Amino acid sequence: MRQGRAWRRGIASCVGRGEAIAEAIASPLRRAHHPVADLRHHLGLLVRLVGAQVRSQLQYRVSFTMDFVSSFLMFGFEFGALAALFVRFETLGGWTLGEVAFMGGLTAVSFKTMDMLFSGFDPPAFGEHVRKGTFDAILLRPAPLTLQVLGSRFVLMRVGAIAEGVAVFALALWLVDVHWTAAKLAFLPLVVIGQLAFFAALFVIGSTVTFWTVDSIEAMNILTYGGHELNQYPAHIYPLGLRRFFTYVVPTLFLAYYPTLYLLDKPDPTGMPSWVRFVGPVIGLGAFAGAMAIWHIGIRHYRSTGT
Amino acid sequence: MTHHPSAAEAPRTGPVIERPPLAPLIDVRDLAKHFTMRRRPPVRAVDGVTFRVAPGELVGYLGPNGAGKSTTLKMLTGLLVPTSGHITVAGRIPWRERRAHVATIGAVFGQRTSLWWDLPVIESFDLLRYIYRIPAERYRANLDTFRDLLDLDAFLQTPVRSLSLGQRMRADFAAAMLHDPTVLFLDEPTIGLDVVAKERVRRFVRHLNAERGTTVLLTTHDLADVERLCHRVLIIDGGRLLYDGNLAELQRRFGGRRELVIDLAEDVTDIGGDGSANRLDDPRFAVPGADVIARDGPRITYAFDRDATTAADLIARVTQRLRVVDLALKEPDIETTVRRIYEERLLDGA
Q1: What are the chain A neighbours of B119 within 8 Å (beta carbons)?
Q2: What distance in Å separates residue B59's CA from the closest CA in chain A?
Q3: Which end of chain B is more exposed for a tag (fewer CB within 10 A), N or C?
């Protein structure tokens, strides 16, 4: 360090406006850190970005409370409607109300948590950044781009929707007698993570596409929200074509339906091999890794063409 | 002082102690950016531009709309990757070392903010302090200076989205300078501002350049910015650099004639025998070396070439012949000069 300072002084004496230049050249030295320290700094930045937004959103306490309450009312209505259907039909494709609620709650918690954590990658919001040119501000700051996008938006109000999912899941646990084993307990969080990662991947891909065109946002939304909706009901009640699409093209069925078959010991009327019940988390994380690769291609494209 | 090209590519984490100070702070050579569009010929937004900027210079980058100003600036700030050519800023290649590069530059794009839209200004500053790892005492000192110079106190706690354009601009300027960048890139920094706000921004830029030695490259449509701030201008059109030199020289070569406006003691409006009023060739007002170009009651306007006559000579000659109560000397404004250059393509083939 002392050596560095002496060096800096040396340069400062060489040139007229030496100090500023020496500072500029020396600054990477000051900023060159150990990778672990760097990682801690980046995570600290994410916490700060999110924290600042949470604070500013909590200033609107009334609207926040209203949203939370209305989320719960929505939950009441939705669950009531579903329960009414079951009064009439008793089961849905052989599943009881509790079993449908189990998968629906699981899906809702995963998706809504993703929706909150990845608010910055919500394609319409991100597309707006690109369209208005504010994405450039992110490129102009010396911090990882992905992390800055993640921290660029945080919709705290999603907490209401997450709570709704938790409530549905809790109700399901009360209605269904799940035969818990250690393996099932270990698998449950993986199912949530897999589903979260998969839909996050769809968000990231949807955002990346806005580097080329903003017209495709709706098409992407159909996959994201359609896939999410479909994951709330037992898949074998859907027509074969739809099921095939969401198995082989956008494989959302592996994320909630097949894992639920395992968790609730349900038979598989679709006739898939039994190992497919466990691939959800792998598919989710794999999709996320693929999405990140596409995201980086998108950034390279943006930097070669601008907007 | 020798140039070590390898130093620029050295890994950031390695010991780069030996990097010498490079003579030009900004070095642009044969820079080109072509945009290809479907079923259309490629657009040569920047087409072979070469210039250098030394530390501490304050340079205006001018050109009509679509000339390639913003595209150049985007490449200098590392937002865009050039099609071909070469740029180094403080010895770094902007797009190849994005993070190290942007850590040492400041940028203000007049049309859009770099602050967090929903956060109070001071929170944005605090986040920037963290991102750039600005030492606490530097941050405090800079913030104090900028609060004073830019009069930020009234809106430090206000969310950026609620700021007026002038306030937002001032906040953006402070944000761009908190980390003591060596180079400041400004794209239309006074666009849409009122006269007072423009003057404040210009004063701030002058302060940075004079007190801190910050090198500034600015694009603008407002030639008053250039007149007040820049000694040197670059003029670009059609992606090509047409002029690189000082402003006075540009004015001397391409500026129109200077004007002397005098007010006489009495109204000299007259109607000639042929019915024409205020004839410009009235012999009573003829002065060698200048032409009467306008008459309005007691007011007469002369035009003269700076090379043929000095202002002092002309004033002496005029006051000898006429009873003058007031006079004013008007320089051709840079606005007119630059417009002439664009419209008449005076610099083509230069």
Answers
A1: 52-53, 56
A2: 17
A3: N
Nearest to B55 among A21, A143, A306 (CB): A21
Pick the CATH number of B257-331 from 3.30.70, 3.40.50, 1.10.3470, 1.10.10: 3.30.70
How far is A138 from chain B, CA to nearest CA, in Å?
Answer: 8
pLDDT at position B274 is: 62
Q: Which helix (H) or strand (E) holds A42?
A: helix A35-58
Tokens coding A195: 């589903």
Strands B105-109 and B183-187: parallel
Residues of chain B with CATH 3.30.70: 257-331
Output A103 or A77, whichever has higher pLDDT.
Answer: A103
Whether the per-residue pLDDT at B207 is higher than 90: the answer is yes
Residue B10 in contact with partner chain A when CB distance is under 8 A: no
Among chain B residues, the shortest Cα distance to A25 is held by: B90
Token pair 């709570």 in the structure block, residue: A163
- Does B297 touch chain A if contact means CB atoms closer than 8 Å? no
pLDDT band at A32 (very low <50, low <70, confident <90, very high): low
For CATH 3.40.50.300, list the domain ranges present in chain B: 5-252
HSE-CB for B248 with a 13 A CA cutoff: 2
Look at B119 and A140 and tell me if their CB atoms are within 8 Å.
no
Closest residue of chain B to A155, computed from CA coordinates: B118
Superfamily of domain B5-252: P-loop containing nucleotide triphosphate hydrolases (3.40.50.300)
Say which of B56, B95, B119 has its CB closest to residue A52.
Answer: B119
User: Taken in order A267, A102, A201, A242, is the CA torsion positive or negative?
Assistant: positive
ipTM of the complex: 0.80
pTM across the whole model: 0.79
Question: Model confidence over A186-202: pLDDT tens digits?
Answer: 999 999 999 999 999 99
User: Distance (Å, rounded) from C-alpha B17 to C-alpha B126?
Assistant: 30
Cβ–Cβ of B71/A306 closer than 8 Å? yes
What is the nearest CA distance from A301 to chain B, expressed in angstroms? 10
Residue A141 domain boundaries: 60-305
